[in-house]
Write a structure and sequence with these properties.
2 domains; globular; 273 residues; alpha/beta; 41% helix; 10 strands; Rossmann fold; 21% strand
């Protein structure tokens, strides 16, 4: 199982949409959403709420020690070299309340920038260190590590402002996440690839049309592998894969360059939120 924690619904919305999650009506204390092998909880803003939400969802849904837990959300930036919308994988987390540093295990490769997150228990932030700041990350991590293995806990932040929270509103957040989240979601798909590879999820018709696409679009071996991965995750999000591929199977490209262009269009549709 992969668990997600966001502080606000706006941060959760792209994940809910991408994985076609349904609200868990039995969950009364928090908003919880579920897909086949994924669970998301919206904690609300603040350190205490984050810690309670971690404990609540893990104990309510019979977690396993090898499960993955990811905190995703926006953050303020201190480092002027960062830019709005930049995705940061936190390799060091500072807890301002306990005045200590935490070091998440960084065992898996990822395409993001790395940086230090400084978490505060309230919005009044003094003596800020590190690259980015938030109100949940350190407290999420310290609670989650009591249940799960450290290398399965991730904090991913997206820069929304430079310590000017008054400039951030719901529309800004939605626009920001629309640009930045596809890369995050594709990486999340990749880290669960081993589990998905064990399942033969394609029908015979889907296998035939995939083979036809590889031939008609003149795809390279690496493109063929990428297409297979994208299609697996698209189907696992409870979508109609065959209908999506049929229109593209009609293309008969005369060159690899033409096929690469068509494949790029298909890639975008398979990754859509």
């Amino acid at each position: 199982m992969i668990y997600f924690l966001t502080a606000m619904y706006y941060e959760a919305e792209p994940i809910i949409s991408y994985y076609k999650m349904k609200k868990v009506m039995e969950a009364k204390k928090f908003q919880v959403f579920k897909a086949i092998d994924k669970l998301l909880i919206i904690s609300g803003v603040g350190s205490l709420k984050a810690s309670v939400a971690v404990t609540y969802i893990l104990n309510s849904f019979n977690y396993k020690e090898d499960d993955i837990f990811i905190n995703i959300g926006i953050c303020g930036a201190v480092n002027e070299n960062l830019c709005e919308g930049q995705v940061i994988m936190c390799n060091k987390v500072l807890d301002s309340y306990a005045n200590k540093a935490l070091y998440p295990d960084m065992l898996l490769k990822h395409p993001f920038s790395e940086g230090t997150l400084h978490s505060f228990p309230k919005a009044v932030m003094e003596k800020v260190e590190g690259d980015i700041v938030d109100l949940e990350g350190a407290f999420f991590f310290q609670t989650a590590v009591m249940f799960l293995k450290p290398h399965n806990i991730y904090i991913i932040k997206i820069v929304s402002d430079f310590l000017k929270p008054e400039s951030v509103n719901s529309n800004n957040i939605k626009s920001l996440l629309k640009r930045s989240m596809p890369e995050v979601l594709l990486w999340i798909d990749s880290i669960s690839e081993e589990k998905y590879d064990k399942k033969n999820i394609f029908t015979s018709d889907e296998v035939c049309i995939l083979d036809l696409l590889v031939q008609n679009l003149k795809l390279t071996t690496s493109m063929k592998i990428e297409l297979s991965k994208l299609c697996k995750h698209y189907k696992l999000r409870n979508r109609q894969l065959l209908e999506k591929l049929k229109s593209y199977s009609e293309f008969k490209c005369k060159s690899k360059m033409e096929g690469k262009k068509i494949f790029g269009q298909l890639r975008q549709e398979l990754m859509e939120l």
